[in-house]
Amino acid sequence: MLVLYEGRQIYFGRCTDAKEYFVRLGFDCPSRQTTADFLTSMTSALERVVRKGFENRVPRTPDDFALMWKNSPERAALVKEVDDYNNQYTIGGQYLQEFKESRKAQQSKHQRVSSPYTLSYVGQVKLCLRRGFWRLKGDPSLTFTQLFGNFIMALIISSVFYNLPQTTDSFFSRSAVLFFAILLNAFGSALEVCCNLLISTPSLC
Questions:
Q1: Does residue 42 lie within any of the structural domains?
Q2: Between 123 and which of 60, 119, 135, 201 could a Cys-Cys bridge form, CB atoms 3.0 to 4.6 Å apart?
Q3: Are 179 and 160 in contact (CB under 8 A)?
Q4: What is the chain's mean pLDDT, rounded?
């Protein structure tokens, strides 16, 4: 949890400890106020509530809050924790080599260790093609329906643009033919995606 007040850091640490830190400073969290609203109210003088007896001891300005946080034991413990972590897991140390070896064991044989992908581009294409053939073999109805629909639409659209003149006068008409060809195939892919979504999540039906 990071709390900023006009660009100043007034808390940074575990969410479970944030509320207790500001309560210890002298602020009160109303019974029906959530922790998130309580932390947000620390950055507004009109919203934060000071406990009785702490009127002259609580911080008021962003600089006061930042100074209190800088000198707090919570920040000292946080800095020590960060330093211990950096000393244990140094950059370029043995843990980096162990991570590279673990990452290399997960990746395919011909994939670079620095690559964020487990499979290479060729491997991904092969996997998608294999999956497509398995889906076609398991349920060819969608593919045949698409082919039949494209055939019917091809006949309808071709009848509209049949026998175009071999001049530049038909330039816009030929562009429209290409547009319809791309558009229909795009809609066909969208239909396939929707069908796969409904199959994988029957609750949407």
A1: yes
A2: 119
A3: no
A4: 83
Q: Check whether residue 149 and residue 80 sit in a common domain.
A: no
H/E element holding 27? Answer: strand 27-28
Among 68, 85, 102, the domain boundary falls at: 85
pLDDT tens string 124-176 = 888 889 988 888 888 888 778 878 887 888 888 888 888 888 888 888 888 88
CA–chain centroid gap for 182, Å, is: 30
DSSP 203: G
Whether 53 has a pLDDT exceeding 90, the answer reads: no
**How many structural domains does the chain have?**
2
- Tokens standing for 20? 């207790």
3-state secondary structure of 20: helix
* 73 and 6 belong to one structural domain: yes
Give me the residue label for tokens 């300005």: 61
- For residue 46, the enclosing domain spans 2-85
Q: How confident is the model over 91-110, as pLDDT tens digits?
A: 777 777 777 777 777 777 77
d(CA 195, CA 159) in angstroms, rounded, equals 30
Question: Which has more pLDDT, 204 or 139?
Answer: 139
Query: Which residue stretches of the chain are H helix?
Result: 15-25, 35-41, 62-70, 73-88, 94-106, 121-138, 141-160, 171-200
Query: Is there a contact between 183 and 176 (Cβ–Cβ < 8 Å)?
Result: no
Residue 99 lies in a domain: no
Same domain as 80, residue 6: yes
131 located within any domain: no
